[in-house]
What does this fold into?
Amino acid sequence: MAADLRTLRTSLTELLGDKLVGMEERLGELTVVVGAAEMLDTLTQLRDAAGFEQMIDLCGVDYSTYGNGTRGGQRFAVVYHLLSVAHNARLRVRIFAEEDDFPVLESVTDIWSCANWYEREAFDLYGIVFTGHPDLRRILTDYGFVGNPFRKDFPLSGNVEMRYDPEQQRVVYQPVSVVPREVTPRVIREENYAAPVK
It folds into this structure.
């Protein structure tokens, strides 16, 4: 497998050249980092010239607390998981959005049509906007949902909760009424802590 990754690394370095921002090998797979400005050209080259004909997944990532917040650089990235059936190879491509306040990347639905719902999911959960997407709207949360629940700064209890109001005979939104509390598992309560084993 290492020889295959070495060959893949060499061929991608030759193919992409200056478009590569970084490359790393981890968990038996290769990850390449590409700039947002070159993403469509690069992903098209990976499909057509390198043989990665399938995009099997796309996910958003919020790096704001990565490395306990010591990591510098852009906050939001999209990671594309590509598969080449012909070469029996997988590849991860990481592309960072240039702005943290309003993350925007190009849509890849013209390259891989399966990206449609994955991009909607990243938009819904992380707030990453994909320009050129044919129908960019929420897919997992409801249309009145406030915020993006997978962002690291989203409150654990959310902002609003919904319930059915029998008097109005409809669903209503109201501020969250959850009282924060600390739940300590029974196995680590102080009375059992460091007790001798019988």
In short: The CA atoms of residues 120 and 137 lie 6 Å apart.
